């Protein structure tokens, strides 16, 4: 009698998780390609890009041909201004910079975790450089004394470029009216109003009641025309039926502007937070004139991906605390 065969073991049920195939780019594009796309755009030349990356020009040309084969599109064109990215190249450069920045930040965070300290690089405009930012940094440094902080001050457009490149962790200032890029996250911290500033010895500082018309005849130290505060100040005067102030000195330098105010009878305009800090020194006077048209939100913004590092998050929390305390304290304006 034939012996019955033992039943075969049952196979495990196949996994229901769908395996997503890797795209052609994921399989073939390398970090070397991404760094090269960034370097060509920055340098505007294959020769200078080769020097920047310590590569031969032939190697750069070959790598660029590989990228164009992968994308099936031209990435750069040669013009009288050098190598300029095509619309396809602009997309690749933008993503390349984001990827390289994330790798650089990951390397930094791992190193800082290993060494027991952190770092944060913050961009700022004069609207926050002298007021809320130092106060927030004082809070953070009290909690983490070994934190390395880098502050970069400049114009809004340039700082936004640095932020999107990954050269800044976050930015803080008066928020612009125009829409931010889709890859940037923005948070409103509070409201700010511009204030008119003179020295404590200025003739206007002793007048109990002032009108805008009484400022006629004095020189002005003003930010450039392209700044929102300058435009808002001009609107305030025009709506009052007056000519807009004419700048005797046009400057974005806080130290220069402060020195001019303290040594002359000129007038300047500062954000509320900065004016509050400087008024406590007793050297300057905030004129009792309300400039409602200059109201703007103060805020902070950062790259949506990869988001905030632990050190950057700590600074954002401190900025929230400082602006909340200023509002709760009955900040004028």
Give the topology.
Elements: H1 24-28, H2 31-43, H3 46-52, H4 57-71, E1 76-79, E2 82-85, H5 87-115, E3 119-124, H6 126-129, H7 132-143, E4 148-153, H8 156-165, E5 170-174, E6 184-192, E7 194-199, E8 220-222, H9 228-239, E9 249-250, H10 254-263, E10 267-271, H11 272-279, E11 284-286, E12 296-303, H12 310-328
Parallel strand pairs: 3-4, 3-5, 8-9, 8-10
Antiparallel strand pairs: 1-2, 5-12, 6-12, 7-10, 7-11
Helix pairs in contact: 2-3, 2-4, 2-5, 3-4, 7-12
Describe the structure.
The protein is of the alpha/beta class and about 325 residues long. Helices cover about 45% and strands about 20% of the residues. It has helices spanning about 25-30, 30-45, 45-50, 55-70, 85-115, 125-130, 130-145, 155-165, 230-240, 255-265, 270-280, 310-330, and strands at about 75-80, 80-85, 120-125, 150-155, 170-175, 185-190, 195-200, 220, 250, 265-270, 285, 295-305. The chain has a five-stranded mixed sheet with strand order 4-3-5-12-6, sandwiched between helices. A five-stranded mixed sheet has the order 9-8-10-7-11. Strand 1 and strand 2 form a beta hairpin. Helix 2 packs across helix 4. The N and C termini lie far apart (about 105 Å).
CATH topology of the largest domain: D-Maltodextrin-Binding Protein, domain 2
User: What percent of residues adopt helix (DSSP H or I)?
Assistant: 40-55%
Spatial gap, N to C terminus? 103 Å
Q: Give the beta-strand count.
A: 12
The biggest beta sheet reads: 5 strands, mixed
What is the assigned CATH homologous superfamily of the largest domain? Periplasmic binding protein-like II
Low-pLDDT windows of residues: 1-6
Q: How much strand?
A: 15-25%
The count of helical stretches stands at: 12
Order of helices and strands: HHHHEEHEHHEHEEEEHEHEHEEH
- What integer value in Å does the Rg equal? 28 Å
CATH class membership of the largest domain:
Alpha Beta
Largest beta sheet: what is the strand line-up? Answer: 4-3-5-12-6
